[in-house]
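Task: sequence design from structure.
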C-alpha cells in the first residue's frame, strides 16, 4: 500500500571529490576581424595621442583639479565583442575597466543600413597619468612583435578595437536609457564609484560637499564598486566626471510601486472569532516571515496572535511602524494564514508554526515619493530584524518593486544588494529572500492578454539571481457580483494572471524569472472589453483599518509573493535544519505547470518550446505536499554540500577550476527492475546555490562575469559505466590510455536540456524514460564553471568555497511499488510504519 508523508531522505555521506577540468572552454577572440597591422597600429596610436591630449587639456581648465589620470573610451567593431578583459591592468590597479555598454547599429560594411540590427561595444577605461605608455606599448608590440603562434602580439585586443577617444563626461558613464538623463532640473541618480575603499568613499563625499550636491546618507558596497545616491542635473554629472578619478557609471534612481486598493469589504466579524478558536500558534517554533513593506497594523485580531509589538520595526524612526497604506497588512494576512478564505470557511484546526515580523521600508506621506538607495534600505531593514531576534529562522518577503522594467534582466544596485544579502557576503548568514516579479506596467493592456504579460519585463529587483522571484497565475474565474453581470474573466482558470510580468524579452544570458507562480488573481471585462478588478477574482486578506473593515480583497504579484513566503515557512518549520538554498530548491523542485498554463505558451515538445515556457512561467506552481514529503512511490533525496570551485596552479602561473563532486545515488534498482520494462518513470534534478554578485557593470555585461562562480550537473546515460561517465565529462579523469570513451550524454531523456536549464543560480530539469533505463542512470556529477572569483584574482576570492543543495526525486505512477524503503535501508534509515485503522 502506498505511504505518503514520509520525510525526505538526506544523504549525509559526503560525495566523492575529484580534480576537474571541463572538456571545452570559451573562445574570447571569436569573430574578431584581421587588420593590416601597420595601418591599424598607426591609426590607433594617433587616436590615442589625440584622446590623451584632449583629456589633459580639459583637466587643466579646472584649477583645483586633483585628478591622477584620464578617462578613455574604446569602441569595438559592429557585431564583435571587445576583448575587454585585456583593457585593464589588475596588478597595478592604475588601468581600470569601468563599464561596458552596447549600442545597436544597423549598417553594413559600406555604411548602408541593413535589415538586421547589430551591436557595437563601448568600454570606458581609467588610465593613470604614470601609465600613459600602457596602451602605447601594447600597440607598438602589436606592430613590431610576433607571438609564439606567429600572429602579431596582442592581436586579439588590438584587432578588436575599431576606435578610441576621450570619454564623454556623461554618455560614456550613463548606463540607463538616454531619455532618463537629467536636464537642467536635478533628479536623483546613482553614482557608481570604481572602488569600495573607505578612502575613495570619503574623498567622493568631500567632493559632493564642495560642489553643494545634495545626497542621501549611506552607500552600497560591492567588490570594487560602491554606490551613492545624489541629486544632480546634467551639468553637475558632467562636472563630477571632470573632477573625480573614481566614476564608473551613472544611473537614474528607481521609484517604487505603491498599491492602493479601494474595493469594498464584505466579510463579517464572526468569521474572525470562529477562526481564532481553531488556530493554534505553535510557540516553540523559531520560524518567522519578515515582511519588508509599508508596516503592519498588528492590532487586527487575526494578526495580533502572529506579530508582537516588539517585532514591528522601521528603517527610520520618524516613519513609525504602523501601516499607512494597507499593503503591508494585506501582505501579513496572506503570509500568516496562506489561503485565508479557506481557513475561514473550513472547520479544521489550524496549526501555525511561524510568526510575522514587520520592517517598514516605505515612508508615509509626504515622504513616500522620495527616492532612496533601495539596496541600502533593504539591507538596513534585514539587519534590524536580525538584531531584534537573532535566533529566528526567517523567510524575508518583499513585494515592493520599481515602477518600470528598464533593466531587462541586467542587475541593478538593488538586485545586486539582494544577491549579496542572500549569499551572506562578508558574514556567515545566508538568507532566503522572496520577491515579487512586479505587475503589468500599463493596466490598460489587461485585455491584450496574454501578449502584454509576455512583453512586459519583470521589475527591479526581481532579476536578482539568488532571490526566489514569484510571478502570478490564477485559478479564479467565477464572477458572482451582481454589479458585474455580463462580465467575463480575462484569464482562463489555470492560466497566467493578467497582472504578472515575465523574462521573455530578456537576453538569453540572464536568469530564468519568475522562478515559480502563485495565485495572483484575475481581471474581469465586459462586452466592450472594459477591464476591472473585483472581489470574486481576488484572494482574501486583512485590512489595515479593522475598525472600518476586517477583510479586503488582495491581488497581483504581491498576493502571490505573500503566499510563497507562507509556503516557504511551512517547509522551514518542518525541516529547521535545511539551508535557505534547499528551501528555495524544494519550491522549484515541487513546481509543475498546470495544463492550461502549459497549453498557453508551450505549443510543442521540443526543448525550445520548454525554454519559451520557462521564460514566461518559470517552473510553474509549487505543490506543498511534494515539497514537504516523500511517498513510497515518490522518493526525494537531498544533499547539502560544499566545494571549492577554483585554486591557484601549483607552479603559481595562474588559476584554474579545482574540483567536482561525484554522487553514486542509492537507487532502488531491484524495485525499478521489477516494473514492466517499458513502464515510464520520472526523475527530477534540482541544483540550488547562491552566487556572490560581481564588481560593477564590467561584471554584468555577460553571465560569466557577474556571478562569483557557476555550478552545473550532469547524469550518466543509461548503461554508461562509472569510468566512462567520469572520463566523458572530466578531462582530469583521463590519462594516455583513457581518452573520451565515445559515450553520449542522455540529452534525449531531459525535458529542458543542458543549455536552457543552466541560467541563474537554480537549475532544474526533468528526466523521462523507462524504469529499466533509470535503474542504470544513478551517477551524477556537480562541477563548477567560470566566475569572477577565478577571473579577478586580485580580490583574493579564488580559494573561496561554495555550498549547494542537490535535490533528486524519482516517481512512478505505479502505486504498488515501494521505492522509498530500499533506499532508506541502503543508507541506514528506519522507515516509519503506517498502521491502517
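Answer:
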Amino acid at each position: 500500500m502506498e505511504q505518503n508523508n514520509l520525510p525526505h531522505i538526506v544523504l549525509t555521506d559526503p560525495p566523492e571529490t575529484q580534480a576537474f577540468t571541463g572538456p571545452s572552454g570559451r573562445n574570447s577572440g571569436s569573430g574578431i576581424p584581421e587588420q593590416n597591422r601597420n595601418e591599424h597600429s598607426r591609426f590607433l596610436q594617433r587616436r590615442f595621442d589625440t584622446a590623451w591630449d584632449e583629456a589633459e587639456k580639459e583637466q587643466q581648465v579646472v584649477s583645483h583639479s586633483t585628478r591622477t589620470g584620464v578617462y578613455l573610451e574604446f569602441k569595438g567593431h559592429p557585431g564583435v565583442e571587445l576583448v575587454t578583459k585585456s583593457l585593464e591592468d589588475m596588478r597595478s590597479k592604475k588601468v581600470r575597466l569601468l563599464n561596458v555598454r552596447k549600442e545597436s547599429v544597423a549598417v553594413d560594411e559600406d555604411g548602408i543600413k541593413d535589415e538586421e540590427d547589430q551591436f557595437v561595444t563601448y568600454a570606458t577605461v581609467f588610465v593613470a597619468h604614470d601609465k600613459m605608455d600602457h596602451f602605447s606599448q601594447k600597440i607598438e608590440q602589436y606592430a613590431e612583435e610576433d607571438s609564439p603562434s606567429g600572429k602579431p602580439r596582442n592581436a586579439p585586443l588590438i584587432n578588436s578595437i575599431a576606435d578610441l577617444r576621450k570619454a564623454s563626461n556623461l554618455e560614456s558613464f550613463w548606463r540607463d536609457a538616454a531619455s532618463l538623463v537629467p536636464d537642467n532640473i536635478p533628479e536623483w541618480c546613482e553614482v557608481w564609484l570604481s572602488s569600495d575603499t573607505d578612502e575613495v568613499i570619503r574623498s567622493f563625499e568631500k567632493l559632493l560637499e564642495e560642489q553643494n550636491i545634495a545626497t542621501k546618507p549611506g552607500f552600497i558596497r560591492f567588490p570594487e564598486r560602491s554606490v551613492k545616491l545624489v541629486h544632480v542635473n546634467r551639468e553637475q554629472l558632467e562636472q563630477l566626471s571632470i573632477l573625480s578619478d573614481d566614476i564608473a557609471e551613472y544611473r537614474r534612481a528607481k521609484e517604487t510601486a505603491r498599491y492602493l486598493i479601494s474595493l469594498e469589504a464584505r466579510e463579517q466579524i464572526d468569521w474572525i472569532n470562529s477562526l481564532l478558536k481553531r488556530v493554534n500558534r505553535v510557540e516553540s517554533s523559531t520560524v518567522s516571515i519578515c515582511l519588508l513593506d509599508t508596516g503592519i497594523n498588528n492590532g487586527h485580531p487575526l494578526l495580533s496572535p502572529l506579530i508582537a509589538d516588539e517585532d514591528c520595526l522601521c528603517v527610520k524612526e520618524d516613519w513609525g511602524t504602523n501601516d499607512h497604506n494597507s499593503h503591508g497588512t494585506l501582505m501579513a494576512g496572506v503570509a500568516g494564514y496562506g489561503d485565508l478564505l479557506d481557513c475561514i470557511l473550513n472547520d479544521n484546526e489550524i496549526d501555525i508554526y511561524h510568526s510575522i515580523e514587520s520592517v517598514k521600508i516605505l515612508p508615509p506621506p509626504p515622504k513616500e515619493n522620495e527616492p532612496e538607495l533601495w539596496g541600502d534600505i533593504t539591507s538596513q531593514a534585514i539587519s534590524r530584524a536580525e538584531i531584534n531576534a537573532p535566533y529566528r529562522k526567517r523567510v524575508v518577503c518583499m513585494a515592493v518593486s520599481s515602477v518600470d522594467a528598464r533593466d531587462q534582466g541586467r542587475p541593478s544596485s538593488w538586485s545586486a544588494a539582494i544577491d549579496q544579502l542572500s549569499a551572506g557576503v562578508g558574514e556567515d548568514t545566508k538568507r532566503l529572500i522572496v520577491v515579487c516579479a512586479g505587475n503589468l506596467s500599463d493596466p490598460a493592456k489587461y485585455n491584450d492578454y496574454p501578449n502584454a504579460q509576455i512583453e512586459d519585463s519583470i521589475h527591479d529587483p526581481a532579476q536578482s539571481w539568488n532571490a526566489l522571484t514569484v510571478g502570478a497565475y490564477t485559478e479564479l474565474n467565477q464572477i458572482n457580483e451582481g454589479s458585474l453581470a455580463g462580465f467575463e474573466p480575462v484569464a482562463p482558470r489555470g492560466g497566467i494572471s493578467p497582472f504578472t510580468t515575465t523574462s521573455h524579452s530578456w537576453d538569453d544570458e540572464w536568469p530564468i524569472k519568475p522562478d515559480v507562480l502563485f495565485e495572483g488573481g484575475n481581471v474581469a471585462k465586459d462586452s466592450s472589453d472594459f477591464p476591472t478588478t473585483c472581489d470574486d477574482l481576488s484572494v482574501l486578506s486583512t485590512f489595515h483599518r479593522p475598525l472600518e473593515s476586517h477583510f479586503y480583497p488582495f491581488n497581483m504579484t504581491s498576493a502571490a509573493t505573500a503566499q510563497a513566503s507562507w509556503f516557504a515557512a511551512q517547509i522551514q518549520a518542518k525541516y529547521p535544519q535545511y539551508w535557505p538554498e534547499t528551501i528555495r530548491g524544494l519550491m522549484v523542485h515541487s513546481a509543475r505547470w498546470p495544463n492550461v498554463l502549459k497549453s498557453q505558451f508551450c505549443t510543442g515538445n521540443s526543448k525550445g518550446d520548454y525554454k519559451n515556457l520557462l521564460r514566461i512561467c518559470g517552473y510553474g506552481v509549487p505543490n506543498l505536499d511534494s515539497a514537504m514529503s516523500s511517498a513510497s512511490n515518490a522518493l526525494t533525496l537531498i544533499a547539502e554540500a560544499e566545494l571549492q570551485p577554483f585554486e591557484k596552479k601549483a607552479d603559481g602561473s595562474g588559476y584554474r577550476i579545482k574540483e567536482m563532486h561525484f554522487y553514486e545515488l542509492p537507487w532502488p534498482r531491484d524495485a525499478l527492475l521489477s516494473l514492466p520494462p517499458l513502464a515510464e518513470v520520472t526523475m527530477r534534478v534540482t541544483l540550488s546555490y547562491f552566487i556572490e554578485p560581481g564588481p560593477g557593470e564590467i561584471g554584468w555585461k555577460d553571465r560569466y562575469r557577474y556571478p562569483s562562480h557557476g555550478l552545473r550537473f550532469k547524469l550518466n546515460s543509461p548503461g554508461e559505466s562509472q569510468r566512462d561517465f567520469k572520463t566523458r565529462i572530466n578531462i582530469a579523469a583521463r590519462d594516455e590510455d583513457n581518452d573520451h570513451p565515445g559515450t553520449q550524454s542522455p540529452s534525449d531523456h531531459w525535458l529542458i536540456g543542458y543549455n536552457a536549464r543552466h541560467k541563474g543560480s537554480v537549475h532544474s530539469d526533468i528526466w523521462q524514460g523507462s524504469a529499466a533505463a533509470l535503474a542504470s542512470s544513478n551517477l551524477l556529477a556537480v562541477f563548477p564553471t567560470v566566475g569572477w572569483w577565478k577571473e579577478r584574482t586580485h580580490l583574493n576570492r579564488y580559494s573561496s568555497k561554495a555550498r549547494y543543495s542537490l535535490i533528486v526525486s524519482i516517481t512512478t505512477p505505479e502505486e504498488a511499488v515501494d521505492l522509498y524503503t530500499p533506499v532508506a535501508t541502503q543508507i541506514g534509515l528506519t522507515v516509519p510504519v503506517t498502521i491502517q485503522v
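DSSP finds 22 helices and 35 strands in the chain.
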